[in-house]
Each structure stands twice: as structure tokens, then as C-alpha cells.
Amino acid sequence: MIVDDLRALPEQLSDWVLLDAAKVKAFADSTEDWQFIHLDDARAAAETPFGGAIAHGFLTLSLLSMMSYQIMPKFPGLRASINYGFDRIRFVSPVRVGARVRGRFAVASVDEGDGWLGVHWDVTIEIEDSARPALAAQWITRLELET
Description:
The structure is a single chain. Helices cover 29% and strands 37% of the residues. The chain has 147 residues and is α+β, with helices and mostly antiparallel strands. The chain has a single domain, classed as Thiol Ester Dehydrase, Chain A (Roll). A hairpin with a 2-residue loop joins strand 4 (100-113) and strand 5. One of its GO terms (molecular function) is enoyl-CoA hydratase activity. InterPro entries: HotDog_dom_sf, MaoC-like_dom, NodN-like. Pfam families: MaoC_dehydratas. It comes from Pelagimonas varians.
């Protein structure tokens, strides 16, 4: 049964992802958020406490989808996994451009419906060589099942 398998799923880690300048620039262009703290390393180093350019918080958050593909088991009868939303998001630490991040996923609870499951994940995005995470959130995904 998928519900029991999800509830028993141990904590999962995604692969490390490099947040390089090209990825940050592409996100800036997609969202039209060209604030200098993301794109101008020298100016960000001179004018902010970050020591250089930082990735957008929403870029870091959006990586959860890709990271979840790596950690989610392939269940028979699963038609689709849909982003249902967040109960909590906290941007804990900025991510410097050029840093690597990874997702840490733990199933907090599973709701059952008619042809679907709601999975509540406790997630963090960790920054390589940092004691503090980039973000912590409770993310809800909805799994659509074959009936």
C-alpha cells in the first residue's frame, strides 16, 4: 500500500545542485527580478552584508520540485504528483552564487482521499559547508492515483 510505504519512508537527500551565475541570471530573466544583489557580485560585496551576489530565495525554493523527482519512490498506480502548496516557508540563510545546495525530505504525515494522497513533507534546503540551511518549509504534494 502506498500510504504505508510513504509513512515508512526514511529521510531522503537529493543530489547537490550548483547555483551558478547562469542559473541565477536565467531565473532573474524569467521572473524579471534583476535586483543587483543577485546579479552584480562586486556591488553586492560592497553594499550588502552577504559578501557577494546571492541567489533568489524563490529560485532556491523552486528547486524542491526537481529535487523531489530524485527522492520520490516510483509507486505503481501513481498518475501524477502535484504541488499543492506550503504551510510554512522560512528563508533562513542566503545562498551565495556559486554555492551548492541539496534538499532534505522527511514525510511528516499523509492524508488519504478518494483517488489521491496528500503528503506533508518537512523539507530543508541545505547549503554545502554551512551549518544553517537556506530554507525550511512544510510542503504539501498531492499524489493522484489510478482508480
